[in-house]
Amino acid sequence: MAIPDEVLAVLDAKFAVVLPHLDERQRRLYLASEAEALGHGGMAAVARLAEVSESTVARGREELAGGAEVLGRVRRPGGGRKSAAERDPGLVAALESLIEPREVGDPVSPLRWTTASLRDLSRELTDAGHPVSAPVVGGLLRAMGFSLQGMAKTRAGSQVPDRDAQFRHINSAAERFLAEGLPVVSVDTKQKEPIGDFARPGRTYRPKGQPITAPDHDFIDPDTPVAIPYGIYDLGRDSGWVNVGTDRNTAAFAVESLRRWWKVQGCLNYPGTDRLLVTADAGGANSPDSRLFKMGLADFADECGLSITVMHFPPGTSKWNKVEHRLFSRITHSLRGQPLTSYEVLLQTISATRTSTGLTVQAVLDENAYPTGRALTRAERKGVERRVERDEFHGEWNYTIAPQNPDQQHPEDPHDESGPPIPAEATFLLTHPALTGMPREQFEQLVLHLEPCQQVLTAAERRSTGRDGRGRNPGFGTLDHRHRVLTAVLRSRNTVTLTLAAELMGRKRNVLSYHAGRSKPMLAFAGPELARILVFRRTHPPRTLEALKRVIEEQDNEINSRSS
């Protein structure tokens, strides 16, 4: 009996809707079930409507009749096209030989990586007689235990002794201070930010096709204004304070940032307190080796009546300082993708930083100048050490500076590097024309003439150290301008040894040698007449006071004989 056209029309409509969503095996089984339902002639009718061969429908009937298991896959295991490694048995070995010289990592580890690109490997394999595409090479590498990955900054440097113990020491001290309601702050300097129309990393939501534009090249020169954010994070109140400097990152800048925070926020949030805990890293302006930082803290402690405890994280562990991931990370997020065209823009952006946990930030501008190259005298260094009360556990990292009684006086250090005043008799003796090659009046005029040159050279030397330079004073004592010129002249003429000159002046020889070397370029500004005077005079200059007086006496006698 023929199949009615109405039935065939319904089947045709069903096939058009259902078959495109079925895979090969599902389509075969479905068509076989419809053919069985139609009875005689159903196989041919279904094959014609579905546009498949009758053998396909017949195969489906056999699978249904035999109770085909549910595979959960289109093909049986081993079915379909063979892999490239199976078609070309030598492919994997050839790939291994190519990546062996460029392989990185532990050969025993299951995870390795190669420095060659997939396209390079594909091209070299094809040239070697193994035609293969780059995606196939990627699949083979993954099967061999390779992966595509970036560098991971996880390898720690050399471990500092008692590193973990210092972490626990800081944590216990912070918990103790917080439990007593005392302030605990974490401090550090954030990366410098150039001020101007410069591109910045990060993305922000903008209308489509309207990004913030910036020059295609950033040209940052030494005259470009910079912002130096010094952050102070209050652990107890989850608040941040950022002092944005415009000059240099010095110890004085770090202390001034703390002073400003205390006067604006700290004293209001912690009224009546007389103790403060500061956690800092082991480098930069607040380094534990910086006596200038300790001296500034001592002045701050005297001014505010605070006993300041400072605890430094061991070297190489600054990332665990709270200010880094509680304050600086959020500020970086706020600054993403927008140029810092002015200090005001930077301050407003930092002050707008907020978190869902309640973090608030206040930013202020610090336009003070913080010159570098400040060297402490021995008396100042001794005074700092007297003020520092070091902890029994790693006193170089943990110390307290208490306020000092203003009536307390310390005896003057007899070894102060500035030294006592240079005796007038020594100056009169060393400026004798027999030694300087010029009358004393001419020498005094030379000193006045070279004073502006000395100021220019000093300023140029400071600039040459860079914006963050710490100066070049290696710790030698001070010497006034007049005696610097005198020392430079005596050394150029070699009419007296620096050892004898230092003995007469009451200074160390290395002090005179240092200042003579630094002042020598200044003599070039005195003109050609002085150049003739500064010619090397003596191969064996006097080494004792008696020999020096004989030289002067001989010179005086010679002048007197010529005048007579």
Q: Give the helix level as a range of percent.
A: 40-55%
Task: Compute the number of helices.
Answer: 22
Task: Please tell me the overall pLDDT.
Answer: 83
Bin the strand percentage.
Answer: 5-15%
List the helices and strands and how they pair.
Elements: H1 5-18, H2 24-38, H3 42-50, H4 54-65, H5 84-87, H6 91-99, E1 103-104, E2 113-114, H7 118-127, H8 134-143, H9 163-179, E3 184-189, E4 193-194, E5 226-234, E6 239-245, H10 251-269, E7 275-280, H11 291-304, E8 307-312, H12 322-334, H13 343-351, E9 360-366, H14 378-387, E10 388-390, E11 398-401, H15 424-430, H16 433-436, H17 440-464, H18 481-493, H19 498-505, H20 509-519, H21 528-533, H22 545-563
Parallel strand pairs: 3-7, 6-9, 7-8
Antiparallel strand pairs: 1-2, 3-5, 4-5, 5-6, 8-11, 10-11
Helix pairs in contact: 1-3, 2-3, 2-4, 3-4, 7-8, 10-11, 11-14, 17-18, 18-20, 19-20
For this entry, give a set of tags:
22 helices; alpha/beta; two-stranded antiparallel sheet; 564 residues; 4 domains
Written overview of the protein:
Pfam families: DDE_Tnp_ISAZ013 (PF07592). The structure is a single chain. The chain has 564 residues and is α/β, with parallel strands linked by helices. The strands form two sheets. Strands 3, 4, 5, 6, 7, 8, 9, 10 and 11 form a nine-stranded mixed sheet that branches. A two-stranded antiparallel sheet has the order 1-2. A hairpin with an 8-residue loop joins strand 1 and strand 2. Residues 102-113, 411-417 and 465-476 have low confidence and may be disordered. Helix 10 runs parallel beside helix 11 (291-304). The chain has helices at residues 5-18, 24-38, 42-50, 54-65, 84-87, 91-99, 118-127, 134-143, 163-179, 251-269, 291-304, 322-334, 343-351, 378-387, 424-430, 433-436, 440-464, 481-493, 498-505, 509-519, 528-533, 545-563; strands at residues 103-104, 113-114, 184-189, 193-194, 226-234, 239-245, 275-280, 307-312, 360-366, 388-390, 398-401.
